[in-house]
């Protein structure tokens, strides 16, 4: 049995969900607004602690992405997922960057809800630090992990050429790319192919670090350095000694922490908070961002000197929509993975599903593809997954995407204008085609051609 907090303002849906989850042995506390949820999560409330937060995206007093951002900045690490309409998927993708465990699209499918809940419960507390297992030997670390797809497209080949080129050096690297494109995967590849492969790979999600705790997380602290520092703590810089430190969403670090980071990089020395002792560290830094750090530097949000220190080498990870022939390769990979995880036996996706996938623009990139396929596999009873297992909103969204926005098709606009003009002039000259051609400044042959083209009577 798990203790869950549900924040949902639709009371009928909230009751349904509470009953359904209750039948599956969970205890649900339901709130209807952010304010109520804050009170429930607040100190002294007898309802907590909660194991998972289930948040409707649109709430009467705000949206749950902002709410979650605040919770994470206050140090709350309870796994959370957002329930959203398909049209808000882009927002849900942002939510995952700030530490939501997953998102689920409405109307909520019960099996899918239980799957996401199970995964959230298995994951336990959301941490900002993810340590990859140490590579066992040089020979092994040189190989790509089985979970890793390189792809065949031109952009994929170039990406891995850069990875192989920079990996053996000790250069700092900035990995830039949209959310979910696989930046962390690329960072791990660089580590595995580097001379540090036998050392640790420590990944920190700067997006989910609270401002106050970021410095202590990175550089460690001494007992009593601040309220709550009950014992000495080693920072992740020290934990990554001899290996690679991967800072995801680096643009989120505060200015103060950026200064400390620059010093650590330049002098290879860190000083834990509340300590006077310098600690020598040997760490290679890889940073990832989906922001334009140069633009942030121009506005003063990111230190330019730190940017240049990090930018010894830059790698762009392409968006899924630009990876063309890689899509079917990733699809098969994620289908195999989902079959294994969910004990299903989906062989492939139908041609219609693949057509939708090819046309869809995948704002959440590989992460979104992985999620959509997991749901497809979960909901498919047959060996071939069909359109019926796709959220209908995805198909509609894809169709809307295909249509040009009103007024944006320049050619159609020009043609409409041209037709109207020819009709007007022809009326003015009482259908004397020679006169009309003269006034329109075209020859008679062209005028005849256009009259036929636009079906002008
Ligand atoms: N080359 C790859 N082969 C197989 N799976 C991949 C690959 N790249 C990424 N993935 C999968 O796609 C998902 C997103 O990858 P990852 O977390 O590395 O993206 P990211 O760009 O770092 O995301 P964010 O911007 O949110 O930090 C993960 O589930 C990961 O397992």
From TrEMBL:
Listed GO biological process terms: phosphorelay signal transduction system; regulation of DNA-templated transcription
Gene Ontology MF terms: ATP binding; sequence-specific DNA binding
InterPro entries assigned to the protein according to its UniProt record, in alphabetical order: AAA+_ATPase, AAA_lid_NorR, CheY-like_superfamily, Homeodomain-like_sf, HTH_Fis, P-loop_NTPase, Sig_transdc_resp-reg_receiver, Sigma_54_int
KW Cell membrane (keyword) present: no
Residue ranges of every copy of the Sigma-54 factor interaction domain listed in the record: 149-378
Alphabetically ordered keywords of this record: ATP-binding, Coiled coil, DNA-binding, Nucleotide-binding, Phosphoprotein, Transcription, Transcription regulation
Coiled coil location: 332-359
Ranges where the Response regulatory domain occurs: 3-121
SMART domains: AAA, REC
Residues annotated with 4-aspartylphosphate modification: 56
Entries under Gene3D superfamilies matching the protein: 1.10.8.60, 3.40.50.2300, Homeodomain-like (1.10.10.60), P-loop containing nucleotide triphosphate hydrolases (3.40.50.300)
Name of the protein described by the UniProt record: Two component, sigma54 specific, transcriptional regulator, Fis family
Lineage, uppermost ranks: Bacteria, Pseudomonadati, Bacteroidota, Cytophagia, Cytophagales
